[in-house]
Design a protein that fits this description.
Length: 231
């Protein structure tokens, strides 16, 4: 899976929030702790930071095969979610986050596993550079994961809801499904929209993380600082 990495400056912001996230969760790490780890370029940097503490905590549950592989590469044990109870924290990036801590996620097509792992965690720590901080969600296309045979049906239903779904050609999720991206779809009421889209037959989930948004946002600023916000 290839992730966006637009500029060296943006990478520096992502690296700064990844380091801040490690400090945020460090007090939670004991030899019994399993944490949830997300997917994407920012999450990758967090995994690299987490690797420096490999062996001091039990391990992680990953939200994608790509993250699982990276975690193992750092010597971190990766657990099946079904073998793990509640986790104290889930750390992941976002494509957009609004003032109410609702997010669009799934630019890397890992939205469903991200939502599942996040649901099992007590806290969601979102790590993002300041380009992701928006007043209203929807500049970034909203991903919807669909069962392949339902793709056209779901697309027609989404058009009726005022969306412009585009099939993300060539992408198969880790769950064997496909993605429709909703372009130019401003989302004023994310909790309601998350639920409406999820009710369409054939939708696995959509990339709105609103009913369960972030609890903490670590936002990398252009001046090199990391702003911490708590819901
Ligand atoms: O939801 C995701 C992957 O499915 C990512 O968290 C989101 O796309 C942000 O990625 P990046 O950190 O590369 O900007």
């Amino acid at each position: 899976m290839a992730f966006r990495s637009k500029t060296a400056a943006q990478d520096a912001l992502k690296r700064a929030v990844a380091k801040a996230a490690l400090e945020e969760i460090r007090p939670l790490l004991t030899p019994e702790t399993v944490i949830g780890v997300g997917t994407g370029s920012t999450a990758n940097m967090f995994i690299d930071e987490l690797g420096t503490l490999a062996g001091t905590f039990k391990g992680a549950v990953a939200s994608s095969e790509a993250s699982a592989e990276r975690l193992r590469g750092h010597g971190i044990d990766v657990f099946d979610l079904n073998s793990v109870g509640s986790m104290p924290v889930y750390v992941d990036g976002a494509d957009e986050i609004d003032p109410g801590f609702a997010m669009i996620k799934g630019g890397g097509a890992a939205l469903t596993r991200e939502k599942i792992v996040a649901a099992c965690a007590e806290r969601f720590v979102c790590i993002a550079d300041e380009s992701k901080d928006v007043a209203v969600l929807g500049q970034f296309p909203l991903p919807v994961e669909v069962i392949p045979m339902a793709r056209s049906y779901v697309a027609r239903e989404l058009v009726k809801m005022g969306a412009d779904p585009i099939y993300r050609q060539g992408v198969i999720t880790d769950n064997g499904n496909q993605i429709l991206d909703l372009y130019d779809f401003p989302i004023e009421h994310p909790v309601e929209m998350e639920s409406r889209i999820n009710q369409l037959v054939g939708v696995v989930t959509n990339g709105l993380f609103a009913a369960r948004g972030a609890d903490v946002l670590l936002l990398g600023r252009k001046d090199g600082s990391v702003e911490r916000r708590e819901a």
